[in-house]
Amino acid sequence: METKYQLIFLGQKSPFRPDIETAFFQHVEELGLDKKNVKIIDETNFDQDYIANAPTYCLYFGTKNSEFEDIHQIERLKADATLILPIVDVIADFNASIPEQLRPINGFQLSAKHDIEPLVNHALEGLGLLRLSRRLFISYKRDESSAVAIQLFERFEKAGFDVFLDTHSVPKGEVFQEELWHRLADTDIVVLLNTPGFLQSHWTTQELAQASSMSIGILQLVWPNYKPERSSELSIPLYLLDTDFDNRLFADAKSNLTDVIMDEIVSQAESLRARSLAARQDNIVTEFIRSADNAHVSVSLQPEKFITMRNSRDEEIVIIPTVGVPQAFTYNQSEELVKRIKQTAVSAIHLLYDHRNIRTKWLDHLAWLDNYLPIKTIKLTDRESWLNKN
User: Fold this and answer.
1) What would the pLDDT profile of 282-325 be if each residue is shown by its tens digit?
2) From CA 71, how far away is CA 94, in angstroms rounded?
3) Between 3.40.50.2300, 3.40.30.10, 3.40.50.20, 3.30.365.10, what CATH number should domain 5-129 receive?
4) How distant, in Å, are the alpha carbons of 18, 183, 226, 322 from that of 375?
5) Are 4 and 34 in contact, with CB atoms under 8 Å apart?
6) Angle between the 116-127 and 17-30 helix axes, to the nearest 10 degrees?
7) How far apart are CA 382 and CA 325, in angstroms?
8) Residue 269 in contact with residue 156, Cβ under 8 Å?
């Protein structure tokens, strides 16, 4: 079964739902994601269709009559650490319109059609579907599959991915292997061309091991007449047939794949990417929350995918779990973040990230930025000491 992105509608029946779905799927198509990889869920199909380990975003529509619906589903979603956005007609009536379980979460006012686009953007951000975050790494053995690797590079770039391919993506003058590990740490999914000689190479074997250790999803394209020798929890094999190659010449490094199988590969990558992003995000969030519990620090996971807590001085701090290499916010994202800070009087913002395999020069750059920018960074391995200091 392919993992799907899940958008859940719960609570009061909203007249805006048709327009929300229309705008949502329009943006999904613009981002290059096939509609079939998205599942719409509400109270009618929740029990049979909801999957706990799939990337999920829930829209909960409040009511003014205090007769709150779908509480059972909300409790289950909260237990699964699912992002839930409470939605009301008037933000001033938030507490009276939303069940107690959701009142600690920042709400959203939906009162007119012009509010739909910002709402849909929240859902897309919560699901990790924005184009700039769609990173992919191609792992292959040059003398066995170079033509297919280049073909995949071009096909995935057309689908909106930021693709790493060693022959195309390492800048001149850079230390090749350091840059490769750095880009692997920053990817969402690895497409591995599992040819008969793949595991005979030291470096390709290392790429597989590193991706597995970081819970990065691996789509293995297994060559005809060859059985893969190893896999990982987030590894899916796609067995290629000789008919998937032009003129059935799969043993030639210069051979190409057919358009039909290329479409299937992109679809499988989208599905696995959903699991990969969810796993890496959950790992960072879970590790931090577990450490916070051990330190007896109360934290809350917010719909915008950040964690809030109060320090020893009763000041609110925002921790943003970041998959891969922390990047500068776009101007628009920074503006929205500043607005949120001013509204909630946030004392500090920190990016929480896993620094394994990130290049030293980039870590030094992040440390330098910590001295000058209001947004600081926290290495995942430093979370316990950081919590004890705060």
Assistant:
1) 788 889 999 998 988 888 887 556 788 888 888 888 888 888 87
2) 17
3) 3.40.50.2300
4) 38, 23, 49, 13
5) no
6) 50
7) 16
8) yes
